[in-house]
Design a protein that fits this description.
Blueprint lengths: L4 E6 L4 E8 L3 E9 L1 H5 L6 H23 L8 E7 L3 H18 L3 E5 H12 L7 E6 L4 E8 L2 E7 L5 H11 L6 H9 L24 H16 L6 H27 L3 E5 L6 H14 L2 E3 L3 H4 L3 H13 L20
Parallel strand pairs: 1-4, 4-5, 6-9, 9-10
Antiparallel strand pairs: 1-2, 2-3, 6-7, 7-8
Length: about 350
């Protein structure tokens, strides 16, 4: 019996992506049409513009993914699509396309939680990875610690109360007149600065608290910049970037390893766009080595939003008999489904 072919579709924010997967972990193709150059002039993602560009890109991207996979549309056995969380207009483009394709091909539809998709990117990167493990999800819109007991059982240990880490990076970058997306710019600039130059706050530092808050840190950076300018000083952007990034990384790493200890896990996986941050990856890798923890993270192309992770998550949901009907709708505020 041949392994099933899954078409994955991702349009939660500003990346239009389609991927083809054989079985659960054999990636045949992954195509991503980015809108970063379009939104850079606005300093961030404009939802209406993102939606319009998804409409223009979705079918060409799907066709390209099918072609690169070396298959025909008729070979597709199931269609997996992100239905939340994300920008509602952007999500609706992907969901509508996926429903149309599933209906026309006469194959099942699978609605996928974008956050769970980020975690499952690690299964594509590390073929031998299997639950249980602890996942640290750090993206532009979300920051969370998730205990993954098995392929269908997740326990949300803590998430952000306000700004996500990636969102804080972008907002701080904007204040410092750095281009969008801000995360990579802060990461690059921080290498030239002193991470101990400014003592920025670390919120929710109590032991056993696995929630995050970066809104106060963002405000502290803004206040520091304004204070320096009022004194007639030109703020040292490199030092500010390094100190801000150090505060974020310290909080993420500390809570991740505390959560691992409480849950009794021996593996940490990093997921989401901020996984590409060099300082965070280095801190987690070094701390994991010190504590005898196995540490894994995806390659950069699987860190940012992509349809490969959605296809992978969808394939595992299908194996568990979890399908969606054609009434599937976008859920912009979707959270982890704890079990």
């Amino acid at each position: 019996m041949r392994e099933k072919i899954t078409l994955g579709i991702e349009t939660s924010c500003d990346e239009t992506s389609a991927a083809v997967l054989r079985g659960a972990r054999e990636l045949l193709s992954c195509v991503i049409a980015t809108q970063i150059p379009i939104h850079r002039k606005y300093g961030g993602v404009v939802p209406e513009i993102a939606s319009r560009n998804h409409i223009l890109s979705i079918l060409p991207v799907v066709d390209q993914a099918v072609k690169e996979a070396g298959i025909k549309r008729s070979d597709i056995d199931q269609v997996a699509v992100t239905y939340g969380p994300g920008l509602v207009g952007a999500l609706l483009v992907g969901v509508s396309a996926a429903k149309s394709l599933a209906f026309s091909l006469g194959v099942p539809l699978i609605g996928v939680n974008h956050l769970e998709g980020h975690i499952f990117a690690n299964f594509l990167e590390t073929k031998e990875l299997a639950p249980p493990f602890m996942a640290l999800v750090v993206s532009g819109g979300h920051t969370a610690l998730v205990d993954v007991a098995d392929y269908e059982t997740f326990r949300l240990m803590g998430k952000t109360r306000d700004d996500a880490a990636g969102e804080a990076f972008d907002k701080v970058a904007r204040v410092m007149d750095l281009p969008y997306p801000g995360g990579p710019e802060i990461d690059k600039l921080a290498r030239e600065g002193n991470p101990h130059a400014v003592d920025f706050p670390r919120a929710l530092a109590q032991e056993g608290n696995y929630e995050f808050s970066f809104s106060g840190l963002k405000s502290a950076v803004l206040n520091h910049i304004n204070s320096e300018r009022m004194k007639g000083h030109e703020p040292n952007k490199a030092d500010i970037a390094a100190s801000f990034q150090a505060a974020v990384v310290e909080v993420l790493a500390h809570k991740a390893f505390e959560a691992i200890r409480e849950a009794g896990r021996d593996t940490l996986v990093l997921a989401g766009g901020v996984a590409a941050n060099a300082a965070l990856e280095k801190r987690l890798r070094e701390t994991a080595a010190e504590r005898g923890i196995r540490y894994l993270y995806p390659s950069p192309r699987l860190c940012t939003d992509n349809a490969a992770m959605i296809a992978c998550r969808g394939a595992y949901q299908a194996a568990a008999g979890r399908y969606s009907d054609l009434y599937l709708n976008a859920v912009p505020g979707l959270d982890f489904v704890s079990a």
